[in-house]
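Handoff note, outgoing to incoming analyst
You'll be picking up this chain. Sequence as last confirmed:
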Amino acid sequence: MTEKTATPEDLTRLLPALARQAVESYVREEKTVKVGSEDAIFKRNLGVFVTIKKGSSLRGCIGYTEPPWPLGITLIRAAIASATEDPRFPSISPRELDDLVYEVTILTEPREIHINDDKDLGNIRLGRDGLMIDSYGRRGLLLPQVALEEDFGAVEFLDATCEKAGLMPGCWKSKGTKVYIFEGIVYKEYL
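Most recent structure output, in case you need it:
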């Protein structure tokens, strides 16, 4: 039996729809939805982040870089966590649900890079690569689209990722700090 394989157009519809369904079911009824698709991509272990926006304002963003579960389960967990556990925001309420837009970012496996001088900054492809900083037990991650949304250069993107980890800008220059890049494919809900 051949597994179904979704087209990019299918995924643009399926992934944000599953995130929306997961959040709405959990916020309204405290129920966790099941993965409704038999598509092969939902069975792969892939990193995923779910971003929830209200208008142009961020309302929640949580994900997993190296999940132990298949994508379908990981996406559902990330969506619910984005809505209810992002420490920057109060939990999403039922009255907000109709005003939210969902964005799902599928991640490639993070790959360590070394930045020894300015020419190494070119290893970061702004808009295509996301960044993860790991330093002294603290970790920060910014998705690829953040560099474009904030109009960051490579140094600003690295500094912002340090700050996301709760560290000082420039921490990426320290010997004890590891810098990783990953690619992200964004599937945004269009209403």
